[in-house]
Amino acid sequence: MKLRHLTLACIITGSAAIAAETGPKDVRFDDYGAIEASLTGVAGDAANGAVIVGEKSKGNCVACHQVTALADIPFHGEVGPLLDGAGDRWSEAELRGLVANAKMTFDGTVMPAFYKDDGYIRPGDAYTGKAPSGPLTSILTAQEIEDVVAFLATLKEQ
């Protein structure tokens, strides 16, 4: 009996966490591009966020940005601003908005929208050069956005 109650509690808790996730089409940006509310209702994991920032198949933020905390990852770019001190320059809401879709803050930016699944101009199907055959998904999940925000928030001015 006790096991059934525990299982039921886990199912209810898991359902609540899933229900709390904000989908890409439901994100609400303020007038300056910030997103006040967490996309998941779950705190971000800064360690996982650091992996995503450096991971070539995920965020790959280091392709455009320099991050001293990730100096062991090769080939940092210089297109975007230095991310050192990002946690002091921007609030958590501003960071969330920038990672989800920086175009809501900086109209002409070349930074990709990491949490968007529609409204693209001529997206390709991986590296085939053909139009996508199915629905598009966001580059990062809602929790991955929260993880990256948690990592960026740790980057303070020295």
Commentary on this structure:
- By secondary structure, the protein is mainly α.
- Helix content is about 35%, strand content about 0%.
- The protein contains 5 helices and no strands.
- α2 (about 45-55) crosses α5.
- It is globular and about 45 Å long.
- The relative contact order is 0.21.
- Residues about 1-15 have low confidence and may be disordered.
Summarize the amount of helix as a percent range: 25-40%
> Helix and strand succession?
HHHHH
End-to-end Cα distance, whole Å, is: 55 Å
Question: In terms of per-residue confidence, which ranges show pLDDT below 50 for 5 or more consecutive residues?
Answer: 1-17
Strand residues, percent: under 5%
Write the topology of this structure.
Elements: H1 2-20, H2 46-54, H3 86-89, H4 92-101, H5 142-154
Helix pairs in contact: 2-5, 4-5
Primary descriptors:
0% strand; 5 helices; 158 residues; mainly alpha
Concise structural overview:
The chain is an all-alpha fold. The protein has helices at residues 2-20, 46-54, 86-89, 92-101, 142-154. The protein starts with a helix and ends with a helix.
